[in-house]
Amino acid sequence: MSLLSVTDLAIHFGGVKAVDGVSFDVEEGEVFTIVGPNGAGKSTIFNLISRFYQPTHGKILFAGEDITQTPAHHIAELGIARTFQNIELFDHSTVLQNLLVGGHTKRRASWVEDVLHLPRSRNNEREARRAVEEVIDFLDLAAYRDKMIAGLPYGVRKVVEIARALASDPKLILLDEPASGLSVEETADMAFWIEDMQKDLGLTVLMVEHDMSLVSAVSDRVLAVAEGKPLSMGTSAEVQSDPKVIEAYLGTAA
Amino acid sequence: MKVHFKASYDDDIRLFEDRARLLKYAVLLGLMCALPFVVSDYLTGEITLVLIWCIAGMGLMILAGHTGQVSLGHAAFLAMGAFSNLWFMEQGIPFLLALPMAAIFTGVVGAIIALPILRLSGIYLAIATIALSIIVEDVAIIAEPYTGGVMGVFAPPIEIFGTMIDRYGTPKLFYFLCLVCTVLVTLAYANLLRSATGRSFLAVRDSEVSARALGVNVTRTKALAFGLSCAVTGLAGGLYAHFVQIVNYESFLILISITMVLQVVIGGLGSIHGAFFGAIVVGLLPQGIAIVRDFLQGTAGIDISAYPGLDTAVFAAIIIVFIVYEPQGLYGFYRKVKAQWELFPLARRDMFKRSKSYLKTERMR
């Protein structure tokens, strides 16, 4: 059984068919990448899986469970974490606090216990901090632990966002353009981290990315979409040489 | 600059990061306890009012400073706390029970009101909360059996375990009552901030969309923040009723709501300290203006008592100065000065310059 199974997914905004009949399966432990020109509907697919959008039709199964009606704030608890194309960190908090929010679904104390700081609340905090330290260690963020997000360079913010997603202890992580705005070196680092997530943490990675060097380096399978419709699926090399994909990016020969 | 070596997670969780800080707050508390025996009863009364403002300010700070939801109508909840506290006491419920009951009542009402209101954001939320303040002014007149109508309600004397506390009769005891309430609310607030619940408030303030993706129920979190905010404000309202002795619809005009917003902005949004700094300014400014007025009249021979709107104008001037020069408020200013001092002479001029924020996802709001 596939970890994530998307069947005939579509969302229409009025007359705009942002996503129109996309189907794919992501197997457990693989790195699956969605590529496509701007406006192809890649991020929209992510927002559909995160349940920010309600699909017009189609089905999303996660670990065999239909999540097409699940509210967005229950998705993290199921084991799907995500990052955002334009970095959505909590700017006026420290890196540590950001990552601790990542562990939000693991909390057991109610707000009353939190206000009174009862033992369960304190244990929550200890447990959350222990989990977060593992992520900080994994992504090498120790130097930034107590820094405010607002003062961090862009490249570090990208990593912090991934760290925050990892702090929720997901099974599937959705990376929305992890390499956008990164330097060549930082992109190479990103490739290593994605590999580590797959190999060391046993995560399944679903990624949207434009940087073909990163895509080729880490992806097991690639799906190309254009104008909301699937074009081609296969290994990175297969997809890149598919005439339909080349046409979508470059247009037809005159 | 001090570096804190943390050897366990508890080092990071505890309220005071080191002994020195704990000592500082202990000294402050000691000074506050000694204060009424040093200064006159009149001044004790004024400081009591500052403490009540501190509590009210913390109430609004939870919402505006930590959850990012502006309320321009918090005087409504001050009124709810005041009237309900007095009504409970009229029913024969002792003060020690009536006060928390008033806070809980206000909190529950606030949370219920929050559900529709917090669907709005920004300027629309501001308008809706102003409307709330206006509605409560009218309700305070209409609901005569509970609020005494236009006449208002007299606050009965407080009795705690046989000790009578009266704002004028025993101003010191009333001061200590307010001090205890302030300390308890501050502790609860600090606890909130170091917990998952408090962090979910911050998350909602800074990015609703990623809060949701991380499993924070945004609607519930906002309602909880509004409820807690109203409960604390209601508590302040209950104490305020006993401070002014008689409350009617005029005690909670919309100007009070605006003053509360000024308080948290002047103090510094997003910190407990900010509520306190703001309360000191808001609570003592009228006194300060009176002193300046007397001084001008006595020494310089200039009579400014003919300008009744003066304190409002000074308030307005102060808020403009703060928004332009110190958006972080007094507490932000204090932190800057402190950092400059600690780093002297290595502080850089641009150290506190706001880094420009990167593009935020606008599509999914």
Task: Describe the overall structure.
Chain A: GO terms for molecular function: ATP binding; ATP hydrolysis activity. Chain A: It comes from Pontivivens insulae. The complex is a heterodimer of chains A (254) and B (365). Chain A has 254 residues and is α/β, with parallel strands linked by helices. Chain A folds into two domains: 1-79 and 171-254, 3-Layer(aba) Sandwich (Rossmann fold), CATH 3.40.50.300; 89-169, no CATH class. In chain A, 38% of the residues lie in helices and 23% in strands. Chain A has helices at 42-49, 75-78, 95-102, 111-116, 119-138, 154-166, 184-199, 212-218, 236-241, 243-250; strands at 4-13, 16-26, 31-35, 57-62, 65-66, 80-82, 172-176, 204-208, 221-226, 229-234. In chain A, the strands form two sheets. In chain A, strands 6-7-8-3-9-10 form a six-stranded mixed β-sheet, with helices on both faces. In chain A, helix 7 links the parallel strand 7 and strand 8. The longest helix of chain A is centred in the middle third of the chain and has 20 residues, at 119-138. Chain A is globular and about 70 Å long. Chain B has 365 residues and is an all-alpha fold. Chain B has a single domain (39-343), classed as ABC transporter involved in vitamin B12 uptake, BtuC. Chain B contains 15 helices and four strands. Chain B has a two-stranded antiparallel sheet with strand order 1-4. A two-stranded antiparallel sheet of chain B has the order 2-3. In chain B, a hairpin with a 2-residue loop joins strand 2 and strand 3. In chain B, helix 2 runs antiparallel to helix 8, helix 4 (75-90) packs antiparallel against helix 5 (95-117) and helix 4 (75-90) packs across helix 11. The longest helix of chain B has 29 residues, at 272-300. Chain B is globular, with a radius of gyration of 21 Å. The two termini of chain B are 41 Å apart. Residues 355-365 of chain B have low confidence and may be disordered. Classes of the chains: A alpha/beta (254), B mainly alpha (365). The interface between A and B is large, with 51 and 40 residues.
